[in-house]
Specification:
alpha+beta, 1 helix, 3-stranded antiparallel β-sheet, 24% strand, globular
Length: 76
């Protein structure tokens, strides 16, 4: 049996913060519901009253990570 690893979720977080549930953690997941690849972006611990707001540096990193996931997904 040949097993292959394909990353479908990655976490962006500050150095030293928990990647699973830290205050700075942002999870990016590959999604495919038959209409093609798209991404779900989740801020793990946003303040209840805040909309999903991202700093410019976070958006740049989200874009980069989404590209990495897309490459891994397409090469599955």
């Amino acid at each position: 049996m040949n097993l292959k690893v394909t990353p479908i979720t990655l976490s962006i977080h500050r150095d030293g913060d928990n990647p699973l549930f830290g205050d700075s953690a942002i999870h990016i997941r590959c999604m495919d519901e038959g209409a093609g690849l798209f991404f779900e972006i989740e801020k793990v611990n946003p303040e209840a009253s805040e909309p999903n707001c991202y700093e410019y540096e976070e958006l740049i990193k989200i874009s980069s990570v989404a590209r990495e996931l897309e490459i891994a997904y397409r090469n599955k």
